[in-house]
Write a structure and sequence with these properties.
The chain contains five helices and three strands. By secondary structure, it is mainly α. A hairpin with a 4-residue loop joins strand 2 and strand 3. The longest helix has 27 residues. It is globular, with a radius of gyration of 20 Å. The structure holds zinc ion (ZN).
Length: 151
């Protein structure tokens, strides 16, 4: 996608998405360039101490508006889960980068954090949002079909 098109999608959606996730107090900078891993559409670097994050989105890897929004949501969930970064930072501070324990920890971290992000994504896709929608739909239909019950 074109960089300006991706930026426009992000500009339209990032503030309400941050509010929905309860991370609106974070200062988030968005870059539109390739990620450190060329296979990624987006990535996110977080600084929990200052509640600042940088989200990088690679416009050349985004195929659609849905792709941009899904990637933005994924990275914002990483911001939501940033307290785990602080825990990890302390727990890995004694490891030597690249040694066996460091590599094992890195693999375990990736599985744990990405599955946690996925679990939160599923809450939005399948969980709390949908029952609320069905409840509101039921109330609306009850009001339309049986207005005398509410008057
Ligand atoms: Zn992720």
């Amino acid at each position: 996608m074109d960089k300006s098109e991706v930026k426009a999608i992000v500009d339209r959606n990032i503030k309400p998405m941050m509010a929905l996730l309860g991370v609106q107090h974070w200062k988030i900078n968005v870059l539109y360039e390739p990620c450190t891993n060329p296979n990624w559409v987006a990535s996110c670097a977080r600084n929990i101490a200052y509640q600042k994050a940088t989200i990088t989105i690679d416009p050349s890897r985004a195929d659609s508006e849905e792709d941009v929004i899904d990637s933005l949501r994924h990275e914002l969930i990483h911001v939501l889960l940033a307290p785990f970064d602080a825990y990890r930072g302390i727990m890995t501070s004694h490891l030597t980068q690249g040694d066996t324990l460091d590599r094992i920890e890195d693999e375990a971290w990736e599985v744990a954090i990405e599955n946690t992000v996925l679990a939160v994504e599923r809450i939005f896709d399948w969980g709390l949002v949908n029952p609320l929608f069905y409840h509101l739909r039921h109330c609306f239909l009850s009001l339309i079909c049986y207005p005398s019950k509410f008057l």
